[in-house]
Amino acid sequence: MKNLINKYIWILLGLITSSSVLAQVPDLIFDIEKPKKQIVIPQTLYGVFFEDINFGADGGLYAELLKNRSFEFKQNLMGWKTFGNVSLRNDGPFNNNPHYVHLAPTANEWRQTGLQNEGFCGIGIHKDATYRFSVWARTTGNSEKETIAIELGDLGEDTWGQAFCSAKITIDSPEWKKYTVELTSPKSSEKSFFRLFLESDGEIDLEHLSLFPKDTWKGRDNGLRKDLVQALYDLKPGVFRFPGGCIVEGTDLETRYQWKETIGPVENRPLNENRWQFTFKYRFFPDYYQTNGLGFYEYFLLAEDLKAEPLPVVNCGLICQYMAKHESEHAQIDELDPYIQDALDLIEFANGDTTSTWGKKRAELGHPQPFNLKYIGIGNEQWGKEYVDRLKLFVKAIRSAYPDIKIVGSSGPKPDGEEFEYLWPEMKKLKVDLVDEHFYKDENWFLKAADRYDSYDRKAPKVFAGEYACHASTYGRNHFQAALYEAAFMTGIERNADVVEMATYAPLFAHLEAWQWRPDLIWFNNLNVVRTSSFYVQQLFSHYKGTEVLKLTIDGVPVTGKEEQNGLYASAVWDEQNKCYIIKVVNISNNKQTIKLNFKKKALLGDFADATRITLAATNPRLENSITQPDAIMPKVESISLQNISSPTIESNANSLQIYILHIKH
Ligand code: AHR
Q1: How much is the pTM?
Q2: CA of 151: how far to CAs of 110, 196, 211, 504, 533, in Å?
Q3: Alpha carbon of 245 to ligand 1 centroid (Å)
Q4: How far is Cα 430 from Cα 135, in angstroms, rounded to an integer?
Q5: Within 6 Å (CB) of ligand 1, which residues are found?
Q6: Which of 337, 449, 478, 541 suits a disulfide with 519, CB 3.0-4.6 Å?
C-alpha cells in the first residue's frame, strides 16, 4: 500500500513539474546555416574499437567452438574432460604448440577412452547448420587404421548427455595428417558439448581439435561468427581499431600483443594469456586465453569487408602501466629497435608490394593487393614521460620510412587531469596526426562534454575519441538513458568534425556469461546477438553522418543542453550524396518540444521533397534490449510532412534521439 501511495505521489509530482515546465517553454528556433569555413565530415568519424575482452574474440567473434584446442593453456587439459586412457605429450608437430594427447584403449572393453570439450560456456549449435570438425592425428600402434567417433551432445535438463549428431573418422597414417568431417545438426542447442571416443583397439595421437560452423562470415575457413560480423557491418563503421585496448600492452613484455605471432597457419600460432583473465578478481576467468586464430590478417580482411579504415595499434615497449611496479619492467629505450621494427614491418605487411618481405607474406596468405593502411596507433592509453620518450623514436622511424602514414598518439587513460594536460602539448610537439582520448564517464560528464570540442585548437593534431561509453554513476550496465547521453555528447563530436576525425565506443562485444567489463555495445550468447540502445545510437549517427557540417544554433549559441535550451542537444549536416539536410536532436527533458527550423541563408533552402523522422526512445530510462527481448528498443522510421515549407517545424519527443532527414527537390 505504502508503495502504491509513493507511486501516485511520484506520478503527481511528475505531472505538476512537467506541466509547469511546459507552460514556461517557449518554442525554440534552430538557426541553420553553412559555416564560414566548410567542414567536411571525415569518412572515419564513427567507427568500431575491437578488443579481445569479454570473450570478444575467442568464444565470440572468432567462430572456433572448442576451447583449448591445442592443449596449450597453462593447465593443459583445461576445458577438457578426459576418460579412459588419455595422456598428455609435448613433442607434437607444431613447434609453438607442442602439446597433444595420446589415446590408448583401456584394459576393459567397456571402459571407453576419449575426451570431451565444454566449449565457451557450452557450444552453441544451430538447427540444420553444418559444422566442420578437424583434427591432426596419427596412428602410433601396429595397426594401419584406427577409428574415432565424434559427437555433439546436449546439456539440457531432459536430454543431458545425449548425443544429437555424430560422425566417424578413420585415422589411416602413422604420419601427422589433418582429418576433417562435417556434421549437420538436427536441432539447436545453446549449450552442447563435444565428445570424442577412441572406437578401435589401437593407439593414436591427436592435436589441434577444432570445430567451426561452416557458415562463417563470407564462408571463410578459420572464419568469424556471421551474426556478430553482420552487426558490425550494419554499423557502417568508418574506422576499425584493433586489437585493443589493454591487451596491446600485456601484463609483462612476454604477454604483450605481437602481431607477427598472429599470422600464418593457425595450428602454429602461439597462444597468449589474456590479461582479462585476472584483471578484475570479481570477474575471474582462468580459462581466458588468446589463440590468435583471429589475427592480423583476419583483422585486415575484416576491415576491408566492413569498408572501414584499419587502425592497428602496436605495443610501444610499455607494459600495462597500471600493473607495472617498476620502470625496469618496460622495454628500455635502447631495447626498442625490435618494437619499432615490428611497427614498420606491420606497415609493410599491410601496404608493401609483393616483392617486399612482408608484402610477400601477405600475398602468400591470399591477399596480393595492399590493404591500403593509412593509420597506426603507437601504444594504447599510455602516459608519462616514459611514453613520450618511446613514442618519439617510433615517430621518427615511421615518418622517415612512411611519411604518409598517420600516427595516433595517446593522451592517457583519462580525458582531463595531470597526465592529460602533460600529454597533449607533448603530442603537439611530436606532431602526431591524431591524439587518442578515452572517457568512461558518468551522466554529468557526458552531458557537459557536449561542448568539449567547441573550444579545441583547430591547428593541433586531430582527436580520436578512441574509447568512450557513459557509465552511469548508480547503474553499472547498459540502459537507454546512458545511450541517450552518449547521443547528446555525439552531437558535439559531429559539430566539431574538423577537430574529431574518429570516435569509437568501447568495448564492442561481451559474452553474456563471460564478461569482465560493462556496458558494452553488443552482447551475445552462444546463439544470439543483442544490439543495445548504444548500438542504435552509433548506427544512426554513422548512417546519417552526412558529408558537411552545418552550423546549428539557438540565438547564436550551439545547442548543448544549456539551461535556456530546455534539455536539447542538436547538430545538423548536409548530405551531398543524398541531397538532404539531416538534423539530430537529443531531448533529455521530460517535455515534448516544438522547434522551428530557420534555414538562414536562402541558398540553403531548397524546396523540401519529403521528410523522414527516425526516433529512438524507450518506455523507461533503465530499459535495455536483452536476449529475451532483443527488439525492445529499436529506431522507428516514419515519413512526415513538414507543415510550413519555408520555415518547417519539427517536434522533439521527451527523452529521445530523433533524426530528421529533409530531402530537397532536385
Ligand atoms: O575498453 C576496456 C579497456 O579500457 C581498454 O582495454 C583500455 O584501453 C581501457 O582502459
Answers
A1: 0.95
A2: 18, 6, 11, 41, 39
A3: 5
A4: 50
A5: 51, 53, 244-246, 380-381, 413, 438, 467, 506-507, 517
A6: 478
Hey, which residues does 57 pair with through a beta bridge?
Answer: none
Confidence (pLDDT) at 658: 98
Among 475, 586, 467, residue whose Cα is nearest residue 521: 467
Locate cell 575482452: which residue?
A: 53
Alpha-carbon distance 428 to 460, whole Å? 6
Cβ atoms of 571 and 599 within 8 Å: the answer is no
- pLDDT in the model for residue 647: 72
pLDDT of residue 291: 98
User: Which residues contact residue 481 at a Cβ distance below 8 angstroms, ignoring those fewer than 6 apart?
Assistant: 443, 472, 621, 622, 655
Output the pLDDT for position 582.
97
Whether 207 is a known active-site residue: answer: no
Bridge partners (DSSP) of residue 611 are: 640, 662
Q: Whose CA is nearest to atom 1 of ligand 1?
A: 507
What is the per-residue DSSP string for 514-536?
S-SS-S-SEEE-SS-EEE-HHHH
397 in helix, strand or coil?
helix
User: According to the model, what pLDDT value does residue 641 have?
Assistant: 83
Nearest CA to ligand 1 atom 5: 245
Task: Establish whether the linkage from the previous residue to 105 is cis, with ω within 30° of 0.
Answer: no
Segments of the chain with pLDDT less than 50: 1-26
